[in-house]
Known about the structure:
This is Acetyltransferase. It comes from Rhodococcus rhodochrous J45. One of its GO terms (molecular function) is ATP binding. This protein has about 700 residues and is of the alpha/beta class. It has 24 helices and 28 strands. It is about 35% helix and about 20% strand.
Amino acid sequence: MTTTQQMPVRPLAVLDRLFDPESIAVVGASSAPGKLGTVMLDAITGGSDDSVTAFGINPKADSKGLYPSLRSATDTHGRAIDLAVLCIPAAATPGALREAADCGVGAALICSGGFAEAGPNGLALQRELEEIVAETGIRLLGPNTSGFFRPGRTAVSFVPTVDHIAAGTVAVVAASGGMNHALSFLLSEQGVGVGLGVGLGNSVDVSNVDVLEYLADDPSITAIALHVESVEHGPALLDVVRRVSATKPIVSIVVGRSDVSSFAESHTGALATSWKTTRALLAEAGAVVVDSEQQLVDALAVLSRTRLRASIEPGIGLVTAQAGPGLMVLDELLAGSVRVPTLSEPVQQTLSGLLPPLTFQANPVDTGRPGDTFGAVLAATASDPAIDALAVYALAEPDVIDLADAVRRSGLQDKVPVLLGVGGPAAAVAGTTAGAAAIDVPVLPSPTALATGVRALVQDARVRALNIETTHARPVPSAALLTLPADEASAKNLLDDLGLETPDRRVCHDRARAHETLAELDLPIAVKILDATVVHKTEIGGVHLGIRTGAELDSALDALDTIPAPAYLLESMAPDGVDLFLGARRDPVFGPIVVAGLGGTAAEAIGDVAIRSGRLTHSVAVAMLDDLQFAPLLDGWRNGPVLDRDDFARVAVALAGYLTDHPEISDIEINPLRLTTDGLIALDAVIVPASGSNADTEGALR
């Protein structure tokens, strides 16, 4: 038995040996300046505190301080080394990783590229790494990553300027090492310190799910930045985001806006691109999803310091020392559906005694140039029961007022979250920023940044309130068994079972029955091809509307017979209304999802959709249509019909539940789902069998 095997390993959680190591070996270190291993070893020895012991490993070991092998370094250390950093060519990494595992190393980090991203040979190397991890239990970060850092504690990064990142309480979990550093630098420059920055690289082993779970129990981290490029294990990611965001805010940015999924067997697949789906489901799970790096920084400047209680519609008080910037903030808040309630009469009366006449005092509160009463104005505004947080904007005038001190003396920060937006040169703003930091009040540098911070605060509070509901409604009564492939008539029978209204209809196998049906249904009627293998009927001339007479019916049937039509579906037409789209599909990454949007034949071209996971609750389904730009059309636009959101939510949850319970189905699509004065009615329905099911799906795109 070797010395190493006789030595006990420290009782650390496995990822502690990766992210909080006491000993690090750099494999590939050398005495040659500029080499990757040399740079990494220098960074570790120069950027880590005295509790970290570093070893350079090089088979030639021709320089003082270098060891010829991990085994020799381990023997010198007297116990297993926590972390091995492999700065060697890709081809050599499997052997080095296995040696590290054999020496009892707890975790490894591979900097080099040349793996799955480099073609078949690289993919084979990456699979070797996966096998070693599975066999030995060693944890692996990377490959193809620049590393990680804990400012003020440990720097395992070959980026030389990493020591300029300020220490703090925000963790950065990025798909790439480059974005890990880029986001950390931006956060640091805005005064938001970083507690841990991780670049995942190819994520052979350690994934964003692992890191988020690790951070959940780290008391030094108050908020998390999550950068996502692709998702491999969708349900696991959503589950961990849901758990962690309940106690620590997560702000996420998702790459891939231009990605468009290949056309699926229904409109649902075409509308639910991976980028849209990932953003929507992360937001549903609890993350604050932003559009840019600067928005991420502004959101974390706020959420790393303060958080609202869970609330569907928190009220924001806005106090501004200059009207123009205040209007900019207000415009951004209202565009983001943030509630800025009118202050009560007693509060307005109090403000009128503190402010000069002619200033607006109902919310926003315009103080004019701030004076001695500024702190009292803040306190009065925040005292309104409708106000849950206070946003304040002013240009820096250190000779006139100390904004941070005004907040401190008012004691507001102990009652409601307060956000300061301060404009001016860095030297003038520095004092306010420092004073605000001392009382945990975030400072934003512009009106837009202040609005972004407020919107993040509100979004975080809303999703936590929605996620309080944990029960999942199920369709009652239970839907009947469905035989696949299913034509439109069978699909609508299912919708009937799920409690959704469908048109009065008849299936006709010949012209005689079709003419009998014309006399049985309310006119006008729709005449359609009935064929389970045809999904997009309109595109092949398979739908004829407004049929009232026998001659019109014969003309429609003649056209359908040229397709040809195995059978005809005749149904009464619904009154005019607003056409929606509602679909449930089995996403390849996230599993069952629900997609809703503007319906009709232009649904894909418009692409205005809301997406939720298949585990959506009633309250989440009620709120999901608020994502849509066309949402006002559902609320009685120009005396039109008004959507019963509870009715829509019941249908959406029922569809999601049925799809979840029936793995043989890939998609259930209702398009259009018409909103009429009498409620919702499904005018068309498609059910697509899952790939590999017993149903014959050949010709589904016909």
